[in-house]
Amino acid sequence: MCPFGGALWDGVAPRLGPAHIVCHCLLIETAQGLVLVDTGFGRRDVAHPTPRLSPLFLKINRIILREEETALWQIEALGLDPNDVRHIVLTHLDFDHAGGIEDFPNATVHVMDRELEAATARRSLLDRGRYRPMQWDENVKWRRYRAEGERWFGFECVRELAGLPPEILMVPLAGHTFGHAGVAIRLRHSWLLHAGDAYFYRDEMDMRGYSCTPMMRFYQRMMEVDRSARLSNQQRLRALKHDHGGEVQLFCAHDRREFESLAAASPTELAEAS
């Protein structure tokens, strides 16, 4: 996504030029097959941006759709079979996180119950823009979860996911949407936590002092459904990073620098992280 305003969005690009906002997905190899955390935009979004995507968001975000950037294409480029994607774990169902669901018809899609309810009802004008049922209106195999379960680094309501190893967990982080969740993945010596849209900019997690670019701050407020919950969960994530930064590597869905840092690490380096 490349809205004009450069560093006012991503903190990196020239201010008069386009920003570079990523859709950070994960592919995990398990004994149960491949697991995809979020899908980003899908091939059908590339072929038919409208009506699958909101014309308003297409303009605001200047969404640049390229087939080679879809999860399906990238999995094939790795020499893997997309038919082996058996599970998709969603942070939430916004159009930029769920557009590729139909590219993986063999997958069970794991989502928080409140998220699927909100996405199906689409009661508000905001919901009708952010949730695009055409992206997932075929025979999707949903697996829904209530916000209940064990504790994980002080966070309550964490669930193990049906059919998946216990090293992959959903961590409810409401605020951006009512059913928003992070996804935690156990590595050999540490954890990754994909925080989805619980925050948008890396310096929001800086314990020396909160900082966010003006356009990312505006966009978060525009898209939130519960400000109190969103800000509370951000504070809890900062505390997690402060108290357990050596055990948990935290990142969000849209920060360019966080993506570049993790994308530069090999799977072996991540697995050996401590």
Topology:
Layout: H1 7-10, E1 26-30, E2 33-37, H2 43-47, H3 49-52, H4 55-61, H5 71-77, E3 85-89, H6 95-98, E4 108-112, H7 113-121, H8 125-130, E5 141-145, E6 150-152, E7 155-160, E8 168-172, E9 181-186, E10 191-194, H9 214-223, H10 227-244, E11 248-251, H11 256-263, H12 267-271
Parallel strand pairs: 2-3, 3-4, 4-5, 10-11
Antiparallel strand pairs: 1-2, 6-7, 7-8, 8-9, 9-10
Structural commentary:
By secondary structure, the chain is an alpha/beta fold. A hairpin with a 7-residue loop joins β7 and β8. The chain contains 12 helices and 11 strands. The model has no long low-confidence stretch (mean pLDDT 94). The strands form 2 sheets. It has a 6-stranded mixed β-sheet, with helices on one face. It is globular. The protein has one domain: 4-Layer Sandwich (Metallo-beta-lactamase, Chain A), CATH 3.60.15.10.
Based on DSSP secondary structure assignment, what is the total number of beta strands? 11
The strand line-up of the biggest sheet is 6-7-8-9-10-11
Shape: globular
- Remind me, CATH topology? Metallo-beta-lactamase, Chain A
Radius of gyration from the alpha-carbon trace, in angstroms:
17 Å
User: Could you tell me the mean pLDDT?
Assistant: 94
Classify the secondary structure makeup into a structural class: alpha/beta
Q: Could you list the spans in which at least 5 consecutive residues all have pLDDT below 50?
A: none
Helix content: 25-40%
Report the CATH C-level class: Alpha Beta
Please report the distance between the alpha carbons of the first and last residues.
Answer: 33 Å
CATH superfamily grouping: Ribonuclease Z/Hydroxyacylglutathione hydrolase-like
Largest sheet properties: 6 strands, mixed
Strand content: 15-25%
Overall number of domains: 1
